[in-house]
TrEMBL record:
NADP-dependent oxidoreductase domain boundaries: 18-266
Keyword terms: NADP, Oxidoreductase
Xref: Gene3D superfamilies: NADP-dependent oxidoreductase domain
Pfam family of the protein (one): Aldo_ket_red
Family, per entry: Belongs to the aldo/keto reductase family.
The organism's place on the tree of life at top rank: Bacteria
Annotated protein name in UniProt: 2,5-diketo-D-gluconic acid reductase
Organism taxonomic ancestry: Bacteria, Bacillati, Bacillota, Bacilli, Bacillales
Amino acid sequence: MANDQVFTFHNGVAVPNIGFGTWQIPNEEAYGAVTIALKTGYTHIDTALAYKNEENVGKAIKDFDISRENVFITSKLPAQTKGYEATLAAFEETVSNLDVDFLDLYLIHAPWPWDDIGKDCTEGNIESWKAMEKLYKEGKIRAIGVSNFAESDIQALMDACEIVPMANQIPFYVGRVQKSLLAFCAKHNMVVEAYSPLATGQILDSPKLKKMATKYDVTPAQLCIRYCLEKNTLPLPKSTNEERILENSQLDFTISPEDVQILDAFEDIRAK
Ligand code: A2P
């Protein structure tokens, strides 16, 4: 698979360039799905306390014939958990659920609680970030970052804290180009991770996408995931189906710059 290639965070830590996403995979199904992903060759698994599947994600990794050092594990501080002590406590819960000694990447899941999107939580985010900096300096996390953060949210952390986030995980897919956020992250050497690279599956029926996929002799899903790499973002496709998990990792082709431009110009499915 193509994920023997890596992105490198600004602290030098390498992350495999495709991750297996586990959002919306229930705990009961997570063990099987992660086991298939590991068998397929994924070595980068993305979870979150809020997904309520960390226990079986961790168990699948433990039971698989792979050493902890050879799997890159990301988890996230719940969006509603803000503040220094609350962050330290949530981190302990995550490492205990996963049954690991350290995390490879820990992200603030969102700048605001999901039931209060847009709320100004700047102070809370700064306190959480300071706790994450402490955990990072203690060697309990190899890289720290954010998720769903806009430029202003990131700037607020950079103004008040020591460490520039190493990653920003955002929804990114064909038609949702996020040009200025991508440029901002690039300027600050932040890796952009693309969650929902298939627009949660909604984009796959597009006739235009299907036609282009045929030209490259790939599936629409492979075209979408490869597109993320062409845009220098790290895709986190998810599936619970063995064939599709494999399919999503077979990306050994490139999209021409002209076709990337056509994909950039796709209608954002949120507009429908
Ligand atoms: P399934 O788990 O049955 O494969 P996203 O990664 O953008 O959130 O999209 C995930 C959705 O896309 C899931 O519903 C998943 O369903 C579906 N999916 C994942 N991979 C493929 C694929 N290769 N072809 C078609 N649908 C896919």
